[in-house]
Specification:
Layout: H1 3-10, H2 16-21, H3 26-53, H4 57-67, E1 73-74, H5 75-82, H6 86-98, E2 102-106, E3 114-118, H7 120-140, H8 146-171
Helix pairs in contact: 3-7, 4-7, 5-6
Amino acid sequence: MTERSARALAALEPGDLETAAQGDKLELRVWLRLLTCANLGGAALRRRLRERFDTTLPRFDVLAQLARSAEGLAMGELSKRLMVTNGNATGLVARLAADGLVTRAPAAHDRRRQTVRLTPAGRREFKAIAAAHDTWMADLTADLSRADKDALFGLLGALKSSFKNQSQRRRA
């Protein structure tokens, strides 16, 4: 047995082998494992953000999206990138603006649309949180080898493509 196989067996939850032997859907078990990992990782990140920076993951996500766009983002584009409703994005942006981390201004080409940008304070806040976030992610994934991380990244990319392809086929 390889070291990788031994690690994979050690990572099995109680009942996984019995479930697999009973013929339960592998697709469902993959989905549930993915959700479990996302929930565990998300909970750890939310706790660390709250304890160290007195902030939330959604606020950090807004700052991260805005940090990628020097010219700012329209509210609709921000909502799309965050995968939340316009109302959710509007509430987050309003609170960040009240804290002096972002500004909202009418878009130059369409005064009905708002463009959101980081303030200098928002950029400093994002940089501090992002540095800690990088450290936390390294910590959370420290038990995986570089090869395992590369493989997982590739597999998750394939899963993402499968989801997108299925969605496109359903629309057609």
